[in-house]
Specification:
The protein is α/β, with parallel strands linked by helices and 317 residues long. Helix content is 44%, strand content 15%. It binds 1,3-dihydroxyacetonephosphate and iron/sulfur cluster.
Amino acid sequence: VDPDSAWRDEVRRLAKERDAVLLAHNYQLPEIQDIADHTGDSLALSRIAAASDASTIIFCGVHFMAETAKILAPEKTVLIPDARAGCSLADSITADQLREWKAEHPGAVVVSYVNTTADVKAETDICCTSSNAVDVVRSIPADQEVLFLPDQFLGAHVKRETGRDNLHIWAGECHVHAGINGPELAERAAANPDADLFIHPECGCATSALYLAGEGIVPSAQVKILSTGDMVTQARATSAKSVLVATEIGMLHQLRRAAPEIEFSAVNDRASCRYMKMITPAALLRALRENKDEVHVDVETAARARGAVQRMIEIGK
Ligand code: 13P
Ligand code: SF4
């Protein structure tokens, strides 16, 4: 028996026995994506976690994603195969820092990206993900001040799209996406003039891509700023034969599955998130066998965060 198929059989058997649903983010290792019941972006996976009938959720992703599932489904057991799978972006603001920022802008509406800790969500009015950030900010009356956190590049994208000048942006970033830079993108785009550019809004290069489009260096119809889930949808819809992808490289697996006839390549093939890759096949098996690592969110914190997360899953449906 090939060991991979033995692993798959064992994971499926244990998941069934434990009444567990396996969720995997689009940046997970290919074998994890392939065995999951659902693979998707942060928003899709949060919605599935909230709606699932399973008594256990195994979240193959990073810690804030599993915490979000627990906030939405407190009665379920939520496991993450390795609790050390953090996120540099979520680490870029603490609840204390947010409280100080709020004190400087009394009355402002706080919009937090889902890439934040439960403590930060508890200080938040509405959460968003990259697929509905623009819709979330548009849902706030135009004359109201907004504090947007923690990602500066997603914040800049939202500000451009909404044209709001009363949007204040925290200066956080994801180390993986910030490292996908403009010059690298410009070079790759110049060498592949017919390729579509799929760019995650967390990227440092998103502004450069729009500059390339504005200057006519790349036709603007070929430049697409997309969440990871929207990249999959767009891969099925585009007529391009090749696509340059600016995001974490785990994404390529799902894109190639969705559109095998298209050539997908990474703008930066070193853009790998070490936290996402902590969820190994062995860790997933251990999670199922030993019921570990269980994700707990303090009951009071979860209660304070729940409204903001529920508004997030309602907006942009
Ligand atoms: P998506 O919501 O586009 O999947 O992005 C999540 C993310 O930031 C993981 O890095
Ligand atoms: Fe966080 Fe960046 Fe990793 Fe996403 S890719 S989980 S934002 S560190």
